[in-house]
Amino acid sequence: MKLQKVSQSVSSFAGISFVHEEFNKCGLLQLIDEQLGKRNAWGYGHGELFRTWFEIFFCGGEVAEDVQEHLRSTLESIPGNRVAAPDTLLRELKGLATEDTIVTSSSGKEYRFNINEKMNDLNIKSLLLTGQLEKGKKYDLDYDNQIIEHEKWDAKRTYKHTTGYFAGIGSIGNRIVYVENRDGNANVKTAQGETLARMFGQLRDNGITINRSRMDAGSYAKDIVDTVSKNCDFFYIRANKSESMMEQISRISEWEKVEINYKTYEVASIPFKQFFEERNYRLVVMREKSDDAQMNLFTGDNMIYHSILTNDHESDEKQVIEYYNMRGASEKLFDIQNNDFGWGRLPTSEMKSNTVFLIMTAMMKNFYNYFIKKVSAVFKDIPSTSRIKRFIFKFICVAGKWIRQSRQWKLRLYTDRPYDQLCLS
Questions:
Q1: 117-129 and 351-376 helices cross at what angle (nearest 10)?
Q2: At what angle do helices 16-25 and 28-36 cross, to 10 degrees?
């Protein structure tokens, strides 16, 4: 094998130039600077620093130091692109942080929460800017508390016997719309009603209203149900079992057989009065035979019971159950954030600055949804559902260089793939 070295600078990540261009042209750079204000007179603006963070991850990086170790020459080859050092990128997170709030539970225990309304508002506005949300349109929202595992000094032991935070996260489809951080050992129900009120309020202030809300059993409490019912048309919350509920279920005489995901269940509905006597709520119950012969203490049979609390009286039991089961898609969203967009490797040792990172990388994922939709319209081997690793291999990894011709900068790519057909903003 004979080797010939060429001294000309050719980048193997030239596709990042398209991400850079779209970040600027779609108005995200300007929006960030407008919402977060001037950073300082002569240094980098907030928009520039966010853009560098985005470009690190869109090139396959995971930490701020990757810009110095691997990506600086590639990013600085883009005309007009100012690339900050890792310490400046990390200072950006600290500069946008808000102080932790101490919340006391009903049992008297104190937990730290971190609430960053400015960053969450910026995230929602970025979704409106890119057309992923529209003012005046109603959406379905999922809320869940997700363990963010880490071993920093402020990590607390979670109910899964790991250490980390226990963030509350709201999502609309595959878009994260709200993040509020809390200690890993915080009870899921502690101050959740206040968290939800803030989330619904920020969405409403930006012209976004909620049609249906789905939540797991961590939201099954009187004050939480009360907050949710006031902020959406319909809600679907997994109900915790209780003695009074099971006694009521045991008196159900008529069950209907339905097939859900190729499996047969028995379903029924009963009025729900446990929290609010005056409200017309409904408990949708499903049951299936247990694999063992152990008898249920309350019902006297060997069935497994699950129930969903809702105010939806229009849908039948099967429709309610199937709709609720679709909330499993949020688990995939968390997996993507953990493995593709930095949630599995937090950059600082403080909850407040890590909260900024969580929201910023949620914005990053939302921008990725927007950008890859444009790419997939031209590149048929890059579906809009592609994970970022495939996107990097298929789109970002292309040989190219910026050249100056006739007083203009032009990107020369060494490929026959249809980059020239991309119609960006």
A1: 10
A2: 60
Cβ atoms within 10 Å of 159's Cβ, excluding its own: 12
Give me the sign of the Cα torsion angle 285, 291, 295, 300.
positive
Residue 295: band (very low, low, confident or very high) from pLDDT cuts 50, 70, 90: low
The angle at the Cα of 413, spanning 412 to 416, to the nearest 5 degrees, equals 135
Angle, in degrees to the nearest 10, between helices 351-376 and 329-340: 110
Please state, in angstroms and rounded to a whole number, the distance separating the CA atoms of residues 323 and 97. 37
For the residues 207-217, what does the mean pLDDT come to? 96
CB 30 within 8 A of CB 47: yes
Question: Which of 422, 338, 367, 317 lies closest to 62 in space, CA to CA?
Answer: 338
pLDDT of residue 331: 78
Report the SS3 class of residue 49. helix
Q: How far apart are CA 189 and CA 192, in angstroms?
A: 5
With beta carbons less than 8 A apart as the criterion, state whether 320 and 312 touch: yes
Q: What is the mean pLDDT of residues 24-33?
A: 96
d(CA 352, CA 189): 21
Per-residue pLDDT tens digits for 225-276? 999 999 999 999 999 988 888 888 888 888 999 999 888 999 999 998 888 7
- CA separation for the pair 235, 328 (Å, rounded): 16
Q: Are 45 and 23 in contact (CB under 8 A)?
A: no
Phi, psi (rounded to 5 degrees) for 12: -90, 0
DSSP letter, residue 328: G
In the prediction, which pLDDT does 310 show? 96
Half-sphere exposure of 22 (CA within 13 A, CB side): 23
Q: Count CA within 13 A, CB hemisphere, residue 61.
A: 25
Contact 355, 97 (CB under 8 A): yes
